[in-house]
Sequence to fold (752 residues):
Amino acid sequence: MKIKRGLLAAVLLLAFAVSFFFSGVDAVVTHKGTVAETFVPHYLTLYSLSSAPSLLLALIIALFIFALLSLFHGQPNVSFLFMAIMTVLYIVFLITYCAETRNNSVYNILNEQFLAEGIKVKKRDFNITMTPNWWCWLTAALILASTLTIFPDFRTPVTRYRLKRQVEPYIFIAPHVLLFVVFSMVPIIYGIYAAFTTWDLYNDPVFAGLRNFRTILFDSENTYFGQLRKGLWNTIKFMLYVTPFCIAVPFSIALATRSITRGSKVLQAVYYLPSLLSTTTVMLAWKYFFNNTYGMAVNLFGSTWNWFAPPYTWVMMIIITAWWGTGGTMVIYQSALASVPDDQYEAAAIDGAGAFGKFRYITLPNMSYPLMYTCVTTVIAQLNVYGQPNLLTGYNYNGANAVLLMYIRDTAFTQNIAGIASAMSMVLGAVIMAISFVQIRLMRGDSERAKRASR
Amino acid sequence: MQSNMKRNKELVRVSCTAALSLIAIFWVIPVVWIIVNSFKTNVEFQVGYANFKGRWEYLRTIFPKSLNFGSYVAVFTGEGLSTTTHITTMLKNSVIVSVARTAIVVVISSLSAYAYERLDFPVGDKIFWGLFYVSLIPNIASTLPLFKICNSLGWLNNLNALIWPGCAGIMNIFLIRNFLKGVPKEMDEAARIDGAGSFAIYRILIVPAMKPVLMIVGLSAFRGAWNDYFWPSIVMTDPKNQTLTAGLALLENALGGTQWTNMLACIIISMIFPFVLYLFCQKYFLKGIQIQAAVKG
Fold:
């Protein structure tokens, strides 16, 4: 009996999906006797993501998947919860969406019709009336029917309690999952898709196949090809220059603090302080330090070159980033060094190991995990570099220090060529992703180690 | 032999202390320069650095003749500045965004972590790891669409755009879950038998037990919100309505060339909040880093 009910609900749910595909709204606008009308299906609304109600559609789709999955997992009560929310959301969507008189993507479609007839209408004169077609009512009816089929058993306290325990966890995770779907899942899917489109960031993207990638990867005459190459190369160069210092400096400081007895707390605080500050604060502060007329680097330490010209800008950025990033890494190393058991050193001393031998055979092997971990996190952080070159040098010297994130930002938000910018982000994302995988392997290994230890 | 080793150790200790202290002095020099110079007037700054000869005279020029808080006052009142700084709005925005994000992150992450870890949740692990793997995709892939979504919601130039998207991270839940693994389960089982509901258990038993890790998560959320530069500089399209971190770059453009000491005052103001936070929660800062790196010490 129970299985049959679940099956019926699943069938109704799939029917809902079919009906959803056909449902949409009829949009009509009249301007001085001329009528423009169009049919806007829901999937187009979802695709345009042009207003808050279209995000509700994204949530409905996500809930649909969850509801179907929980049905197949034999949890009709959970599925009931999802479907009930879907029903409410769908009705809210219809009401709020039809109330929008100046929806941007509908406006674009209708305006094209006016333009084709040679009539110019200002956007504020648009007063679109949208009425749902009969498929919409069928869709709503189907999802309601599906919800009612698996209406849970409220009759006895035992079933009520069981129902509560089953549904509870989903309500606890709901706020986070909601934010995650809207601000993480949807943008990621959209962003990957946008890389294959021509898009101006505000209106609907138009599918363009692999054209963006062909432009930025192979079309050597194109400016974006040059920008990607220069930007990516500068990003990687920055990472390669900075990472060794961001590891070596904190490591040597941590080693040195281990062998001192007094004042290590104060010193730790001093070395840690810079990492509290924001990018802009750090960069602007150091800009004064390296200033050529009144800065300390020139006047006190006697450097004679221009710090803001190409080869020296890298040196400047290395100094600044090492200063800024030392704190956190140093604390990791210090606590790892503190957990190396003393008897290992004593045993090594008895075996006649010198200072170097102790370092090579005791310290380094014990530090391998923290070293690897900080390496990976530092590399990822440095590949996301934006603030340092943007605030210190900008596009000076023909973009000698311009990194990819600067070009992506410029292409997307200043020139509004978001399709190309998305493709560039995909390239950068792929590089970062490859390194993140190493991090995951490390983390997974660590949690397994912890599991084994707790057993 | 024994005394030789002891002497060696002593030598290492002394030289390490000396080296570390020396480096520490260099470490704070850029900040000290800014603090000291922010107490000058613009005229004193310009004239002082226009004519000095040699290193020693430069060193003397660094220090102001008298303590002058004028540059700090001017930043807030706009007296004698060529442009208005809007630093009050920026400070307010930064505080609102950071506090709101901290509160939201702490509440929703702890609720989720509790549900994943403690409640009877058969598919919980699948959902968690599913979200976890999706969140590994680098942020840059979702930045442009996120901008479009914020635009659709009418959130451009609105603090909501800075608060909500930043709360979707899953790393915090991961940290809290790992911490909860170490909290004994017997108590909430006993409470459950006594008839307590899940939310009551969460509120009365779990939240107090999670307090250290919630402090850590909250602090890192606060710092993340306070230090964010890229995202605010994109979505806050109106320069009058920025956060302090992103707004500092705009201030540099406005004040940079002529009103040096006012700019320095702005930099100092932007440093104060993180430092004060560090003073009060030093323990949790350091603990947080160690936990994030999963080092047992």
Observations:
- The longest helix of chain B spans residues 2-37.
